[in-house]
DNA sequence: GTCTATAGTCCGATAGAC
DNA sequence: GTCTATCGGACTATAGAC
């Protein structure tokens, strides 16, 4: 993973071959593909951990709490996990933003996060389309907040940015 | 485009080669790649048209209309464009839902739609992060409404489903 | 670890429309 | 004369089969 991020940063995603990543990591190309399904996946390894945090937060929330509040709290918790990895997250974000192929994979991971959150809400009794829309809103706040955190040089906690994004949506919905 | 959709429906996306698509359309493989950047793009050709509809609707809205209302109206208009193509849209949705590679591309197109809407809102003076969040909410309503339309056999207008999704989010935001 | 199919790029040639 | 469409061959890297 480190070898890949370094190479993608140095030469760009398209300018890097899987053989080069494998060589820098000291393994063969076949071994690379045994660990990661494709050339992109190497940058998305920890994403299922975030999903567990979000789903867990939704499941553990008080029974009759408002769905949007539950999800907003969950995504803020999830964001806080990234606070410790700010350097890796920042370098990774630069590469992803520069590469459409990586953006696609990132969006698929966010969609998986959103589906998991919507499922957890439905299990709490939230009906459709409310469950899907609340999940979308939460993941959107996470994404927008994360981007602002990266863009502003990470001087404020990422969870603050995320909460600011969800507050902005609530305000607009009330107009 | 017809050749590709037919083949993807018959044999699946992975079971179809670009050479086969080209052959069925009566051109060479090289010609296929001059029209479409890759194997996926052939199913996403009209998407920039939807973007124009949405951005146009946002630009033409009354000056001090509420941003979320403007975007909701815009995505409902955009959805209505698909009403005429319900058969193509339905067949296409089946293939996309079955194929992660195509889902990724679909998500990228939705992200492009979202960025275009956020940009149009900023030009109207909406600040961040409100502009991004309102754009996310609108595109989410479009996606959720479209899926419900496909899932229910298209017996009600797609724009109805989209409006129902945005109404559900407003309701949740008020709790 | 070996072998192979296929997606996708780069080079260039040709030909009709206006 | 320029624009745009088709086509061909050779090539490389990704990714899957075994």
From TrEMBL, chains A, B:
Q: Which InterPro entries match?
A: Homeodomain-like_sf (IPR009057), HTH-type_TetR-like_transc_reg (IPR050109), HTH_TetR (IPR001647)
Q: Which organism is it from?
A: Isoptericola hypogeus
Protein name stated in the entry: TetR/AcrR family transcriptional regulator
For this protein, the record's Pfam families field holds:
TetR_N
* UniProt KW Glycoprotein keyword: no
Q: State the superkingdom.
A: Bacteria
Residue intervals of the HTH tetR-type domain: 1-54
What is the organism lineage in this UniProt record?
Answer: Bacteria, Bacillati, Actinomycetota, Actinomycetes, Micrococcales
Q: Where's DNA bound on this chain?
A: 17-36
